[in-house]
Automatic annotation (TrEMBL):
Gene transcribed to yield this protein: blh_1
Protein name as annotated: Beta-lactamase hydrolase-like protein
Keywords attached to this entry: FAD, Flavoprotein, Hydrolase, Oxidoreductase, Quinone, Transit peptide
Keyword Repeat (UniProt): no
Domain called FAD/NAD(P)-binding: residue spans: 152-265
Species this protein is from: Sphingomonas jeddahensis
Length: 573
């Protein structure tokens, strides 16, 4: 937790954990204001839990929950009253801190000028410029309040790998295009590297850079969170209630890690031997546990699909087992892999090589076995299997959490029945809205959710988005390519590359890299080349081995929708 000070008496913060409450007390705060309703995300502590933790720390709590995108005058008045009445210094929080900063800004607008309010917010790291009209209205300016900003040519929701790569690919093709990216985070992560952090190969600092440093030049960075969509009006609603217009929308929201879906997991994650490489702050703990374990039971889990990088749960296990083997400990450690899937890997051509390592390390492979509960204090894990539930004692456990579509996507008009952005799996255009595209982990296409998939998808979306802007039909198609470099031991990788339906799509000739067998060259690709390609190629608009395939002629249209210029946009068949 890093609070951002707006005034001497008020700071704001993203979502607090229960541990952060004690840290807030240590930093001198006397009261916490909760601006986030319960149930927005499965991993957030309830208001009641925050009250309990605050009471134990001697802090006061006020709850003024605000629905994203709906900051009302009543909410503003309650927030202003709370600041007058509560003992300070006060720490207010929501999902990103934006709602809390917005409430303060609108509450202060009666007495402070919009420029002063916006400058204070910007100094704290919150760009509230979209609120200017509303601030001026509250300050007494004669101009009327208009909540909708001008429309951008392309509005991208999400500043992860998919969103940044798409913006870079667009600009590589058309300089000067008006592109805005909605992204509240200050840091950008190379998530494929977290497996190597957990295996003692990378320092986690190699996987992190500031968002500002990767944002393409010429792109407007909107440091806020999206809260909803109005595709019929070509608008996105932000967390503070303002809206942004667009001619083309690109939804790249990523996927949510549903830690709360496993009973007891949140309370013990990061201690009691329970870890996960799916969190930046937790991967070093994985390596700590691996080094410290000399005998006992080590469990590794995989939840039902879809998940980010289906091979990552196994990668953690193989790297750990290889370390124990190299240090003469593997004989005293019982390694177990409990996966919800009916097979070790979804593409059969790679299973034989993986099974050799399962046998080499003596791994107890349990298929159709789903983690449902964790008792961290007693180090016991409960799994649901076809013949009932079984509880296993462990000394360390690496957990891959269930994953789902973000809440603001799943409940929007953009969602498919799965909750993810509903797209045509070839053109990646939305199934109902002709000027909307989706890609990355948050879209419904049935490909493997990997950074390699996003690398291939971004140019497809860029080409097709420009076509729609020009009143033409999308012609670039995505074939489902995904890559999963399975680190079976330190120094060797099984390089799985495949597309829709599990069709193999190797990037190199078999005499150079046989993806079905462990390879030293593939390890060098993973350790040395891919991180460099990510930072200096993919995020910069260089499409090495990622040029989109083009249909020879525009496909026959079978439906139409209104494009940003009010003319018919017909969908590809």
């Amino acid at each position: 937790m890093t609070p951002k000070q707006l005034t001497p008496g008020l700071s704001v913060s993203p979502q607090l954990s229960l541990a952060d409450v004690g840290a807030a007390q240590a930093q001198g705060f006397r009261t916490i204001i909760v601006n986030r309703p319960d149930g927005e995300e499965p991993d957030q502590p309830t208001i009641a839990a925050i009250r309990h933790a605050a009471g134990a720390a001697g802090l006061g709590v006020a709850a003024i929950p605000v629905t994203p995108g709906k900051v009302s005058d009543e909410d503003i008045a309650q927030f202003a009253d709370a600041l007058r009445m509560l003992e300070g210094p006060v720490l207010a929080y929501c999902r990103t801190g934006t709602r809390s900063a917005t409430l303060w800004a609108l509450a202060e607008a009666k007495t402070l000028s919009p420029d002063a309010v916006l400058k204070a917010a910007a100094t704290a790291g919150y760009d509230l410029s979209q609120l200017r009209d509303r601030l001026e209205e509250r300050h007494g300016d004669v101009r009327s309040f208009s909540p909708t900003a001008r429309a951008h040519d392309v509005l991208i929701v999400g500043g992860g790998a998919a969103g940044i790569a798409t913006a870079a690919s667009l600009l590589a093709r058309r300089r000067g295009l008006d592109i805005a990216i909605i992204e509240p985070r200050e840091e950008h992560y190379y998530q494929p590297g977290w497996t190597l952090v957990g295996g003692g190969v990378f320092d986690r600092r190699r996987t992190q850079r500031s968002m500002a440093s990767v944002m393409p030049k010429g792109v407007t960075w909107i440091r806020a969170a999206a809260a909803g969509f109005r595709p019929e009006a070509n608008e996105v609603v932000l967390e503070d209630g303002t809206t942004l217009g667009y001619r083309v929308l690109v939804a790249a929201p990523g996927v949510m890690l549903d830690w709360a879906a496993i009973d007891g997991l949140e309370a013990t994650l990061g201690r009691n031997g329970v870890t996960s490489n799916y969190r930046f702050d937790m991967a070093p703990y994985t390596w700590e546990l691996i080094q410290g374990l000399r005998e006992g039971v080590a469990l590794f889990t995989q939840p039902p699909m879809p998940i980010k990088c289906a091979g990552a749960p196994q990668k953690a296990m193989y790297l750990a087992s290889d370390f124990w083997r190299r240090n003469g400990r593997i004989g005293g450690i019982d390694v177990g892999f409990n996966t919800s899937t009916p097979a070790l890997f979804g593409v059969k051509e790679y299973v034989a090589a993986l099974m050799e390592y399962v046998d080499t390390y003596g791994i107890d492979l349990q298929l159709n076995s789903t983690l449902v509960a964790v008792d961290g204090e007693h180090r016991r894990a409960t799994f649901r299997r076809a013949d009932g539930e079984v509880t296993i004692a462990f000394d360390m456990m690496h957990v891959t959490p269930p994953q789902r579509a973000p809440h603001f996507i799943a409940e929007s008009a953009l969602a498919a029945s799965s909750g993810f952005v509903d797209v045509d799996q070839q053109t990646l255009r939305h199934s109902h809205f002709g000027n909307v595209f989706g890609l990355g982990d948050g879209c419904s296409a049935p490909n493997a959710k990997t950074a390699a998939a996003a690398r291939k998808q971004a140019p497809v979306v860029a080409v097709n988005a420009l076509a729609v802007l020009d009143g033409k039909e999308p012609r670039a198609i995505y074939d489902g390519y995904g890559s999963c470099p399975l680190t079976v031991e330190r120094g060797k990788i099984v390089l799985a590359e495949f597309g829709y339906g599990g069709v193999l799509q190797p990037s190199f000739p078999k005499w150079l890299v046989n993806g079905e067998r462990p390879s030293r060259l593939s390890w060098l690709l993973k350790e040395k080349a891919l991180p460099w390609i990510y930072w200096n190629g993919m995020l910069k608009g260089h499409e090495w081995l990622a040029k989109p395939e083009m249909l020879p002629h525009a496909p026959t249209p079978h439906a139409s929708a209104a494009n940003p210029c009010g003319e018919p946009v017909r969908r590809a068949s």
